[in-house]
Amino acid sequence: MNKRLSPVFIELTQDAILKAFWYKPSLRFFLQQHRIKDSALAQWHTDQTKRDFVAWLWPQLVKSDHGHDAILNMAQSLADMRHFPDLERKEDTKIRIPEAKQAVARLREQVERINETIRETMDTKNRRKAALEEMSTRLAAQQSIEKLQSQLENITPQLGTQEGGYTFERWFYDLAIFFELDARTGYKSDGRQIDGAITIEGTTFLLETKFTNEPVGSPDIDTFMAKIESKADNTMGLFISMSGFSEGAKRTASKQRTPMLLLDYGHIYNLILRGVMTLPQVVSRIKRHASQTGSSYLGASEF
After folding, report:
1. CA-based max dimension of the chain
2. What is the Cα–Cα distance from 154 to 194, expressed in whole angstroms?
3. Over the stretch 115-151, which tens digit does the pLDDT of each residue have?
4. How many CA atoms lie within 13 A of 238 on its CB side?
5. Spatial CB neighbours of 240, under 8 Å, sequence gap ≥ 6
């Protein structure tokens, strides 16, 4: 606790502790539970009353922040008290218990105010911490997005080459990993080359990447469709072409309950790398469009 307690609060706590405990062993045990040092308790002489000892102890506690913390902890424990076993053994219990309840009730009101202030302070700190963490995450993400964009721009001169195709395939895998998707690099299945796979919202997408100079045509769509249809029913395909798709390819990929979605440079540059949408959001949007219209392609400008 950074803020020191008010004199009124300290006095109310002192009054409540004296009225809640009658016997020395009970009070000593309470003080020990609230981390009052043994060296301080050793100053309590056998012939000294609990009132005199507390009158000595309290000024020692108010000298330091640690002492204020101890008083606050004791006050919070006292505020929770509903029964007073120490006083139930007294002959004048009918007088002592109401006095203790009244003292604790006055203290409880002050404790609740302090607890509310502490909660508000913690909420403010937590909100500030969350905001800083979000800002840090966004900054790191932006830096990573910029890195991925720089990498893609560096391989652009290789467009249309076999080496460029392999590099782009690996780049798209890195993009999927950046968005924390369950991703797999290229592999062979039944003798057919699969450029990779990702899982989004429970759906597995086989990947086909093209880094060619010309738009993808219908023959490539047919070949990829055969790979998709040979897999389980919940498997779909994601065809990524940096040079886009011919109109014939779009028509070939589109059919009722089409299992294939088409992604081009517009989605990558204008939406994903600019931070407008994430890769999973883009794929989900195209998938929703396909389920509603049967069309595998939805241009970035149509989002």
Report:
1. 103
2. 25
3. 888 888 888 888 888 888 877 766 666 668 888 999 9
4. 29
5. 172, 207, 208, 209, 210, 263, 264, 268
Tens of pLDDT, residues 16-66 = 999 999 999 999 999 999 989 999 999 999 899 999 999 999 999 999 889
DSSP β-bridge partners for residue 150: none
Domain range summary for the chain, segments of one domain joined by + = 7-122, 159-302
* Helix pair 65-79, 24-33: axis angle to 10 deg: 120
3-state secondary structure 179-234: CCCEEECCEEECCEEECCEEEECCEEEEEEEECCCCCECHHHHHHHHHHHHCCCCC
Q: Under a CB-based contact definition with an 8 Å cutoff, are residues 259 and 237 in contact? A: yes
At residue 205, φ and ψ (nearest 5 deg) are: -110, 120
Mean pLDDT of the chain: 91
Element of type H or E holding 114: helix 93-155
**242: helix, strand or coil:** coil
The CATH number assigned to the domain with range 159-302 reads 3.40.1350.10
